[in-house]
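Dear colleague,

Following up on Tuesday's group meeting, I ran the structure prediction for the two-component complex that the binding team flagged. I've pasted the input sequences exactly as they went in, so you can double-check that nothing got truncated or mislabelled along the way. The structure tokens for the whole assembly follow below. Feel free to forward this to whoever is handling the docking comparison.

Inputs:
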Amino acid sequence: MPDTERKLGPFSAAPLGKDDAVLVGLCRKGDESAWSDLVDRYQRLVFAIPRRAGLSEAQAADVLQEVFLTLFEKLDEIERPEKIRSWLVTTAKFKTWGTVRRDKGLYSPETEEEMEFEMANLKDDSPLAEDALVLLEEQHMIRTALKKLSEKCQKILRMIYLTEPAASYAEVADAIGVGATSISPLRSRCLKKLERVLVAV
Amino acid sequence: MKNSNNNREKIIHLMQTDDSIDAPSDAIKWSKNLFRARAAQPAQGILQRIIGVLVQELAPGKAAFGERSGSVGKVRQMLFEAGDNRVDLRVSKNHESFDVRGQILGRGWENAVVELAGQKSNVDKFGGFAVKDVKSGTYEVSIRGGQIEIVLKGIELE
């Protein structure tokens, strides 16, 4: 399975890729908790791909299981473990496409080359087109980077940007135990930290 | 500076439009269990074999130790300890043969293979398994999850 790296806007995959390479290395040495961390880290991204393509929850869960089974079986063969994210996305895309085709009773490509040719010629508005996958990868990177921030920063950013309706500065200040006037500079600092994790300098 | 502002705006936009959800928990659990349940077939000879020790048995028609009640079931129940795991085994008579059901209490046994009297069965996601229509006799139950095998010896079905 190819591990084509997609261009992810201003974000650099390098810092998070190093973490992935460490996890893959530990898995190769038989570390069960590293495997568990890898599954936790990528389950959302892998699951999102078949769901976006319109597969049911059960079908998407099957795709997820197939992807991790394939990863497990190929763990020692993956040449660039720091690119595991791209590998997982491409594998999920292939397996999703296979399921879509089976559902429609269409001929399924038998070789990887045939499949790659088809995938390269998907329409731009397809949920499996490159742009759509780039968006999912970028969102995955932000989720992962967010978890690397301090709990305080995570809380501030989640309350301001990820709750509906967004929390007021007063509510955030109350939640983390600081004055309301501190929230704006704290928010800026936390965003900068998040950016530093994501963007190569 | 402008670039940085653009980056941050993009980050905020991506965070706010992220509507992805977690995969179903049983699919995640299954994927995690792959490591123990399937992986573990590297070099042969390093299989860890754990012999289960019978720690409790309730036979039909016999009250449990310490119980006065005669309200006993028709199912013979045995509880084994095997390393960090426990195996609850229940045997019931089914005409001339026996049905054996069990549950393994421990982590990472989903998809493990249970073997009894030449019959094979898989451990389900709740740790349960069943083997039906076993003729009377004395048997060994093997539960194999990758590199670890739990063996329950001397299971008498009569």
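The mean pLDDT of chain A is 84.

Cheers,
M.
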